[in-house]
Design brief:
Layout: E1 3-7, E2 10-13, E3 18-25, E4 34-39, E5 46-51, E6 58-60, H1 63-66, E7 69-74, E8 79-84, E9 93-99, E10 114-119
Parallel strand pairs: 2-10
Antiparallel strand pairs: 1-3, 3-8, 4-5, 4-9, 5-6, 7-8, 9-10
Length: about 120
Amino acid sequence: QGQLDESGGGLVQAGGSLRLSCAASGRNISDYNMAWYRQVPGKEREIVASISWSGANINYATYSVKHRFTIIRDNDKNALYLQMNSLEPEGTAMYYCNSDHDGGPYYFSWGPGTQVAVSS
């Protein structure tokens, strides 16, 4: 399996912005649909946004996320990004990237994640 390393999280006030980065190694993300996920303690990891291998198809988990977040991929850099604007306290979570498993396997080992904390 490939490896992932997320970064870019931090503590921001509500309404602020963050840009998360995901660096992949060991496998080329160009071969996979990719996604950002998030998890809060006590809850299952949930998908936030996904992007097809070519970038042509993008999906967001909720209407709210769709109008505030942007998922971006750079296959040449083997990297995935999540631009998050107008952050809300409900966005506080650990954020991870991985392939968009869509019921199948994950093609990368889970990285350490990057913590996002949004204060009200």
